Amino acid sequence: MRTVLLAVLMSIFATSAFSQTLKPGDTLSITVLQDPKLDRTVVVDPLGEIAFPLAGHIRARGLTPLALENVLKTKLRPNYKDDALDVTVALANAPKDVPEEDLKPKIFITGEVLRPGPYVVRQPTTLMQAISLAGGLGPYAAKKRIQVRRRAPGGDETIYVFNYRAYEAGADLEGNIALRAGDVIMVPERGFFD
Question: What average pLDDT does range 86-102 have in this prediction?
Fold first, then answer.
């Protein structure tokens, strides 16, 4: 009787873990068995999307981790000979019971940085400082097309484009803007000719 009860409880827990839908701010651990270089941790940005190499931007909000696995398999399959592509998506962040954490002003960094995610801003922070907080740019970053997306209280969104290469050369110093709470920094994956 105990084993049956234990089996029922484990199946309920497993079902609830796989049926949880993804939302902005969730941290996901994604692994690709056939190509470990693609293994990474990504954060669902405030728009409900993730950025993943060779797959681009994918809408994740409202999907379960299993459904996102299937979307990634479909997007990655043309890049590999093996039809049985093995992709795993796991929710990496535990549910937060601390509401005051959600009230702190944050910026969100997503895409090709080493540590994407939300970052609390306690003092004035520039775009370059935020990229540094995220561990710097990843190996596939499109350095000329970094975006800062800022939503105004009325709902309008302003997009600032930053050219990291020009900044390194000392040419685009005014592109290193001061960030505000709620800003989303998107570092896209470079294209074939970037």
Answer: 68
The mean per-residue pLDDT over the stretch 121-128 comes to: 88
| Percentage of the chain exceeding pLDDT 70 | 83
| Confidence class for position 12, pLDDT limits 50, 70, 90 | very low
What is 2-91's CATH number, 3.40.50.620, 3.60.21.10, 3.40.50.2000, 3.30.1950.10? 3.30.1950.10
Determine the average pLDDT of the residues in 59-75: 91
CA distances from 35 to 30, 53, 79 (A): 11, 11, 11
Superfamily of domain 99-187: Outer membrane lipoprotein wza domain like (3.10.560.10)
Confidence of residue 103 (pLDDT cuts 50, 70, 90): low
Residue spans in the chain of domains classed CATH 3.30.1950.10: 2-91
